[in-house]
Design goal:
Elements: E1 3-4, E2 6-9, H1 11-15, H2 25-38, E3 42-46, H3 52-64, E4 69-75, H4 78-88, E5 94-101, H5 104-111, H6 115-132, E6 136-141, H7 148-161, E7 165-170, H8 177-190, E8 198-203, H9 210-219, E9 224-227, H10 241-250, H11 252-255, E10 257-258, H12 266-277, H13 298-306, E11 326-329, H14 334-343, H15 350-366, E12 369-371, H16 372-383, E13 390-400, E14 403-413, E15 416-423, H17 427-439, E16 444-452, E17 461-469, E18 472-480, H18 483-503
Parallel strand pairs: 1-10, 2-3, 2-9, 3-4, 4-5, 5-6, 6-7, 7-8, 8-9
Antiparallel strand pairs: 11-12, 13-14, 14-15, 16-17, 17-18
The structure holds 3-methyl-2-oxobutanoic acid (KIV) and zinc ion.
Amino acid sequence: MSRIIKIFDTTLRDGEQCPGASMNRSEKLTVARMLAELHVDIIEAGFPFASQDDFEGVRAIAQEIKGPIIAGLARAMEKDINATWEAIRYAERGRIHTFLATSDIHIQHKLRMTREQVLQTAVSAVRHARKYTDDVEFSPEDATRSDHDFLCQVIEAVIEAGVTTVNIPDTVGYTVPAEFGALIRMIRNRVPNIDRAVISVHCHNDLGLAVANSLAAICEGAGQVECTVNGIGERAGNASLEEIVMALRVRKNFFDAETGVDTEKITRASHLVSQITGFAVQPNKAIVGANAFAHESGIHQDGLLKEKRTYEIMTPESVGLTQHKMVLGKHSGEHAFRSKLKEMGHSPNEEQMGEMFRLFKKVTEQKKDIFEEDLEAIVTEVIYRTPEHYVLKSLLVAGETHREPVATVKLEIEGGPQTEIEHGDGLIDAIYRAITKLTKIEARLLDYSVKSVTEGTDAMGEAFVQLEREGKIFFGRGVDTDVVTASAKAYLNALNKIAYFKKRGAIHTTQKGP
Ligand code: KIV
Ligand code: ZN
């Protein structure tokens, strides 16, 4: 029988740590529900000590999500461990994940400790965590640049102190597959009590090797892999969940290992994380990129028509990718709409359902055929939206060749309507100027893009913006049947995030995490 590799998903912790990916509590819960549906083994829900917002996010997930183990991250400090326990204690199964750097570079320059102090601190932290739960994981941060003798000494000591999972992080994405595989082999050969813990790996993608390194570690006996949906995470990101899972599935004959992930949910999970974080997936991204299953060359298409396996190593269906399927139309009523959403796995409350149906009807006025992608866009727009401090009430734009465009924007702010008229270099510029005047939030527009949700000139438009304020990055997304309104919504969505995080005192910076 093949080995089962545990999937430890850290989209909500390491993934959320990357600039601009901050999620509010309801967004985190939504992603956690999706991860549970995917059947990941462990969800690292956040870093509870980092802020009140993180704490509440982890606690909400621990209280609601059944199935996966819910883990919280803690530095090797009692106050962090206590907060993590408080956040995860109501989980069906909870895990405390504590970490401390073991490389000399970190010990000398960041921690300013001696190796002996690091060893003692790690052991004390694990003992403290064990007072709360039997499920404790320890990570020697920057393991791949640590001295091997010291690394083995720390691992042996923390296992003795009670950890059940030892995670080997390639914190700075420095290692390469053969070297990382050899490191795992060395740990298995030299740490006498290693059989009392699961070896986990956590690879960053600075050299584009996170997945390859993780797979090399699996070949050498690692039993858990830490990864994120779409590979989001610090800097160049973490190992991508979908790539690891599908590599193990497609090449089961080579790895003789498998995961419990329901691969047919992968595409949905990828879309959801992309929509919530605003991080678009590159078209040529393996498994979930828009072109991952597109065959352009005539020779390939000819081969595929004769026999799919000529150029297809996995089916699009195996990752839940279906052809754009017309699912509803102009004359579909509320009953059909409700049952389709249910079939797609969504359970909105009555108020959300009413709002979604109104939006659906608005869409059908302009668009004859409604695809699953359109419905997903409506769901994201209504259910997973950041609490709105600024609500778009109406928008009037006028543009003409050789005339400066002008926009009239009406927002509802704290219950009252407010209107501004502004000129700009283009329509979007005029709208954004009017919104800035109304919200009084100055932010630098770093990026702006629009795309259609499906094909055709009547398709719904999806706009993305990236704003920078006080060195922090915020993504916004908006959907509408008209791209100009979608652009206004995207801008407001990012401003609402700024307002939301400011209010909760939790604007995340890149220094938030470890
Ligand atoms: O990259 C890293 O070292 C981490 C640890 C906290 C596991 O994220
Ligand atoms: Zn990391």
